[in-house]
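Reply to dn_fold:

You asked what the input looked like. This is it:
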Amino acid sequence: MKSNFFLPITPRGLSTIAPPPPWHYSGDFLVIEFWSDPKVVAALLPGELQPDLKAEGHAQGYFIDWQFTGENDEFLDPARYQYREFFILVDALYKGRPVSYCPYIFVDNDSAIARGWAQGFPKRRGSIFQTRSFAADSIAAPKLARGSRFGASASASGQRIAKGIVTLDSEVANLAELGSRSTVNMRHYPRLTAGDWERPAVHELVESVMDNFTVVDAWGGQGELTLPECENEDVSDLAPMRCGKGFRMSVSYSVTDLKTLVDHSSK
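and this is what came back:
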């Protein structure tokens, strides 16, 4: 019998939207660094975080092709546990410590949305695609090699919200080049009870905890990212003023914990 970690709560626990931790992730990443208007970045940060003035509006866009499993071979149910994702991390400071903050994230799977909300990621439904590489040699499958190009796109509510291209140059020899900031999020669950709308049941600044974080086949090169202006969307406010490096790599890690930094939840 499975555990009812999430809704819906049922006698056998088979219908729960996601299994209980530990959660294990493996995916192909396309990452593009860019610089946005520092004032726009600062305006996105919760009060507990401060702008990183030295970063000058630095951020990163991530396109990821994910595979997930819990402890019961969930990877054998790919329709339920494979998904794709696009999100942005902006540079910030927490008590003087460099961190990253996620203001926008889109995903094409409801189980991933639930697990993301539990971790503080503000996930919304979207449609995300990226160029894949396959073992069989073909011009349809770019290799991890100098000059290869990988593209990606994301859309939400029928509108294109992001497009990226990475042109590979060389293998990443020093993984520190990929950055080492931990990710900080705001977990927020509102109350619907009349009179309590401004007293959220959960309002916590949290820091992601990723166990056994592994990076392989990391290649770097030039990144290009556009965030087109869209109706009723804020993400385009972060439109790049310039882009920098791009990376293509495979990543895996596990999640069993979350660190609460500040808890403003209503008691």
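The chain has a mean pLDDT of 95.
Hope that clears it up.
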